[in-house]
Amino acid sequence: MKLEYSGKEQIPANIETVWAFVTDPQKVGRCLPELLELAVQDATHFDAVVRVGVGPVRGKFRFKVELQPNTEARRMNLKISGGGLGSAVDLTAGADVIDAGAGTTTLSWDGTALMRGPVATVGGRVLDAQAQKLISQTFANVRDALSCVT
Amino acid sequence: MSTDAKPRHAIGHAIKRKEDPRFVQGKGHYVDDVTLPGMLYLSLVRSPYPHAEIKRIDISDALKIPGVKAVITGADLEAAGLGWLPTFHGFDKQMVLAIGKVLFQYQEVAAVFAETRAAAADGAEAVQVEYEPLPAVSDPFTAKKDEVILRPDREAKTNHIFHWEVGDRDGADRALEKSARRVKQRIWFQRCHPAPLEPCACVAHFDTMGRLQFHVTSQAPHVYRTALAIVTGIPEDKIHVMAPDIGGGFGNKVPVYPGYVCAIVGALKLGRPVKWVETRTENLTSTGFARDYHMDVELGASPDGRLTAMKVSTTADHGAFDAAADPTKYPAGMFGIVTGSYQVPVAHAEVDAYFTNKAPGGIAYRCSFRVTEASYAIERAMDILADDLGIDAAELRRRNFIAKDQFPYASALGFTYDSGDYEQTLTKALETIGYQDLLKEQAEKRARGELMGIGLSTFTEVVGAGPSKHFDILGIKMFDSAEIRIHPTGAGIVRTGTKSQGQGHETTWAQIVAEELGLDPQTIMVEEGDTDTAPYGLGTYASRSTPTAGAAIAMAARRIREKARKIAAHLLEVGEGDVEWKDYKFQITGVPTKSVTMKEVAFAAYTNPGQNEPGLEATHYYDPPNMTFPSGAYVAVVDIDRETGEVKVRRFLAVDDCGTVINPLVVEGQIHGGLTEGFAIAFMQEIQYDHEGNNLNTNFTDYLIPTALETPHWETAKTVTPSPHHPIGAKGVGESPNVGSPAAFVNAVIDALSPLGVRHIDMPITRDKVWRAIRGAQAVSVG
C-alpha cells in the first residue's frame, strides 16, 4: 500500500536555526510522535522505537532513519525503514527549508509511505489518516520545538 | 434360525450421522485439544515483504524473552539437510524457512519455541530481520515477461513452470475456422481460499522409544507419514501419524506445510513435545489457496447451436512454489473435463503456469484437481454462446448433451465418462423450479425495466482418483483400502485409508457394511486417521473416498461374506454350493426357512467354525478401473436492484446425480455445505494482492464467510444413474455443489444484466461490480 502526503509549516525562526535543527539527529529524532527510544549512531543515522496504533494493530515499531541533507539546496531528505508486528514500513520524506523573510522559515514537506503486512491490511481502513498524522505530526513537532527555542 | 430381512439402516436410508452427537455436544477431539506434559509452543516469524533478500537475522532479543527456549532459521535447517520440502507432485520443492530470500508475503522465516503460546508470539516479534526489498511480481502476465526471475534456485531461469496440453490443436483450429458462429471470452476464476474453520495444527512428540508421535490436521495421514520419512530421514516405522477430528479441510489440509517440519525439528532438538496452531491470518496467507486460473475460452457452433469445437488457453498463477497437490501426470489436474456434459467433436486445452510472489498452492478446494475451474469455464461459455445465438440456455444445453445411450463416452480430451442421463436431470430441474413460469415472469419484468435472471449449470465432474495406471502422488498409486473385522457378537470395526473431515464416513461406511453383510450399522465402528492401525491409503479429497475406499469396503465385506458362506454351510449342515446369500441372510438354496444370519455366523466364526479358519475379517485394496463422473443440473434465480447493484438469490435448486446414494441425509448435508461455499466464491471471496504484492484479505473481516443471514435457501433433488464400474454404483458428491454452483450464480446475474448488453463479470460478483456494470451500460446507451 503506497501513500503520499505533503504539507507546509511556518516556523518563527530564521532559516539557519531551522536548518541546524533538522540536520541534528538528536533534535529531529525527538520530533517523531510517540517516541519511546532514540539511539543516535552518527551525524546522519539514528534508530528509533515508536509506539503505533493502527486499527487493531497496536505495539512498537523500530525504525532506522537516515538523514540526507543537501546544504546547498537547503533540502533535507529522510529515509525511514523498519516496522514491527510482522509489518514493514518504508518511508521517504523530504523538506525544503525556505526563507520566508522577517526571520521566519517555511518548511515545505512531502512524504511517501510504503506499507506491507498487517499494517497495510488489518489497519487499511484507518491507515491513511494514521500515516498522515504520523508524518505531519513529525513536522509539526519540528515547528513547535523551534517555536519554543525562539 | 432367524428370518431377518434387509437391515433398516443399510444403503439408501437417511440415518442420522453417528458422529454428530459428539460434535454438537462440543466433545469433538481436535489437534488443539492435545496437550502433553512439558509441551512447548511454536510461533513462526513471517516476512512482511513479498520479495526481498534477507540481509541479517538477529535472534538475540528473542532469546531474552522469558520462556523462549530456541529459535531456528532457514540456515539452521539447511545445515541439517532440512532446508527444502518436496511438493506433492514431485516437480518442485519449497523452502521450509526462507533461505537467502523471501518469495511471498507471510513466508516462514524463523521458528520460535517457547513455554507458552504468548511467549512464542513475543519471541517471534522480537526476532529482527533485515530485508532488502526486491521488485515484486504479483500477476502471472508480468511473470511471463521474465524481467524478474523469482526462482534462481531452479535450473531453468524462467518464471514459467510448465506447459500442459491435451487434445487436437490443429483440428480445433480448423473446426473453429469453419464454424458458423464463434464466441470467445477471458474468464478468470479468482484466487480464493478454502478457509477451514480449524486452521492447520500439529503436535510433534518423540516418545521414550524415540518414535515420532505426530498429531496433525491431515486429510491424508498415510501420505504424510511417507512424506515426513522422505523429508526428515526418520525411518517410516518410527513415525506414527494421528489425525483426530478435523474442523474442515476442503483440500487445504492435503499439503505438508513448513510449520509441521519446524515442529518436528523443535521436538527433536529440544526433547519436548511441540504444538503449532496457525492463526487465521497465517492460514489465509500462507497455506494452499485455490484456483487463480485465467482462461481464454473459445467455442464454435453451427447456426442451430450444435457445438463444433472448443479451445481453452489458460494462464495459471501458482505463487512462489509449485505446490499444487496434483497427481504426478496431471500438472493441471483434471482440467480436461472442460468439455463438460457436451458432445464436442474436437477440442484442445492448454495450461501454462507461472511463479509469482504470492503464496503457493493451487490446491483442489472441494474439487477433483481443477475440475471447478473447467466446469465454470464451459458453463459460462455455454451461456455466452446461447446469448450470441439467441437460443434459450436450457435448449442449447439439450441440443449438445451427451445422450444417455452414448455411455461409456470417450470425450475429445481423453476421459471415458462412465454413465449419465443429463437430459433427465435437466428436465427434473426445470420442472421442479417451474422454468416456463419463470421465463414468463422474467419477460414481464424486463418489459418494466426490472432485472431478473435465471442461471443454469449442467455440469459433469470427474472424481475418484484414481486408476493406478494414471494416478499417483509422490509415486504412490492412488488406490485406497479397507479392513473390516466382525466381532463374535456381530458388531465390528472398519478402518480405511481415508480420513473424514465432515463427510460422515462414520455413518456411511457402516451403512455399506450393513448393506453387504446384513448387520446393524449402529454396531459397526469406523476408525480412520491412525497410521498404526488403518491400512495404507491416499486420503480424503477430490471426492475420492466413496469411489475408492467405499468400493474397498464393499469388496472387503464381500470377502467376509465368502468366508461366512463356508461357516453358514457348516451351521446348516450342507455343502457350500447349496448355500445362497438372499434377503441379507444365508439360506439353503430354495429353502428360505433354513437360514442363518450374519450375526449368527459371526458368533460361530469364533465359537464353532467347524473345519474353517476361525475369525471373520478381511482387507481390500481397491484400484478403481476408471474415474466416476457425477453430474448435476443447477438453477439459480436472482433479482438485482438497479440502484444499488445488490443481487438477491431468490431461489436455488440443485438436482444432483451422484449414482447410488448411500445416505440421503449425508448427501443433502454435503450439498448444502458446498452450495454455501459456491455462493461465497461467486459473490464474496477473493484473495487479492496489490501491485506491491501485499495480501489484502488476511482475516475474516476482509475474506468473508457467509453466515445464515446471507445464505440463500437451498432446494435439492436427485436423479440416480449408478456408476457401472463401482461395486455399489456410487460416484461421490461432496464436491459437486462447489463445482457446479458458481456458474449457475454468475449465469443468473449475467442473464439479468444481458438486456443492458453486459456479457461477463468476473467473480466475486460484488454489488459494486454490478452497480458499475449497470452504470456503464446506461452511460453507453445515453452516449
Your description of this structure?
The complex is a heterodimer of chains A (150) and B (783). Helix content of chain A is 29%, strand content 53%. With 150 residues, chain A is α+β, with helices and mostly antiparallel strands. Chain A has one domain: Alpha-D-Glucose-1,6-Bisphosphate, Chain A, domain 4, CATH 3.30.530.20. Chain B is of the alpha+beta class and 783 residues long. Chain B has 3 domains: 20-27 and 480-622, Aldehyde oxidase/xanthine dehydrogenase, molybdopterin binding domain (Aldehyde Oxidoreductase, domain 4), CATH 3.30.365.10; 34-136 and 198-247 and 253-286, Aldehyde oxidase/xanthine dehydrogenase, a/b hammerhead (Aldehyde Oxidoreductase, domain 3, Alpha-Beta Complex); 289-465 and 626-686 and 695-782, Aldehyde Oxidoreductase, domain 4 (2-Layer Sandwich), CATH 3.30.365. Helix content of chain B is 29%, strand content 25%. Chain B has 19 helices and 33 strands. In chain B, helix 15 (545-572) crosses helix 16 and helix 17 (664-683) crosses helix 18. The longest helix of chain B has 28 residues, at 545-572. The chains are: A alpha+beta (150), B alpha+beta (783). The interface between A and B is medium-sized, with 20 and 22 residues.
